[in-house]
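TA notes. Do not distribute before section.
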Amino acid sequence: MTDMTEKKDLTPLPEGGEELFEVPELSTETGPSAEAPEVQSEPQEPVQEKPAEVPQVAPQLPVATLPPKDLLVKDIEEILSSDLTDMYLSLPDDRKAAFRAKGEEVAQTIHVMMIQGKMQVQKVLKLIIEWLQLIPGVNKFFLEQEAKIKTDTIMERFEQETHRVDNALV
């Protein structure tokens, strides 16, 4: 008699490839001489089932409990979004989400530059132009004019913020 663990056969796939798992060769012997695992017939005690484990997921915070945005970030977002309501509403839904996300990213980047005191007019202008270019069919001259106005307003706000901080330190 052969032991089931000694002989193993790799069964080929119909296309000619090999199986990724091993298939044991089964014995054809029957009767009492065939090796089979012994099964004991003991009365089994009822098994207490454990409740199914639920994977731990980070709790979702309700929108109301999220920390409020920094007032400076809100101001920057308001400056960026001023005079663009009609254009925003005319965008397709998929572009609205991308436009809004990019605008928030630009506002955060400008906010970080303000906090670090490293405002660069050309960098702010470039960020705003890249963001406004997401609007399809926008006139190049309008885009540059609008970006320049927004950059100037943001730079004024930066000056106000630095004077406010300087006065608070005195």
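Switch to the second chain here.
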Amino acid sequence: MSVLAIIPGIILLIIVWKFDSVEKEPPGLLLKLFLCGGLTVIPAILIRVFGGRIFDGLFESRTDIGFLLIDCILLTALVQEGGKLIVLKLITWKNRAFNYTFDAVVYSVAVSIGFAVFINIAYALRFGPDNSLLRLVFSVPGHAMNAVFMGYFYGLARYSKGEGDKRSERMHLLEALLVPLVIHGLFDLCTATDKTVFYVLFVIYELLITLTAVRQFIRLSKTDTLIPGMEYTLSSIDWDSEEDRDEG
């Protein structure tokens, strides 16, 4: 099951990497993003477990809509998407490889798939392989879809930084968090209830989000744009130099 948890993520990451047609990103950088994204699973699990216990006393049941909103939006979506964005910004914001807007989507997907793969492994170890099949179907693609939206706004934020537009930079960074947070939170909320209407809404919602994300992904790949101030080629960068990677 651990192998099955890894393979879909690796295949999806390779597909995304192939779509980066202007300039391929360094494999070492993507591996670092993948692994660090996976490490965010640890605080995400701890915050959800202990946070859930704290809010337990405020509600009669964990099926109350109030608890579900807190659990899905704050303890899950905010923590997971926030952790991914922190990793993304710490590793790539000043990295000299980050010179095109579509790079942001590739980086974001690498972080998110790392998270999805590690959480699937943890889930399989905790609940057994039979209870993890549904996660294998939805978890990795779901996190990847969220990553497309995060990467889109993250790329806009980096472009704004290159233009010296601090206001737009801050706004797009906030969007890079809030948009995937809302998408993720609604996804979890629909699947957390036992009401048929929410399952119907989930199917419709998932189809719409998937179609939107795929269309956006293809469009961004075709309209890849050089970030202002990053007018140099990948061949001019010495990837064996830590100093070069971190200067921006």
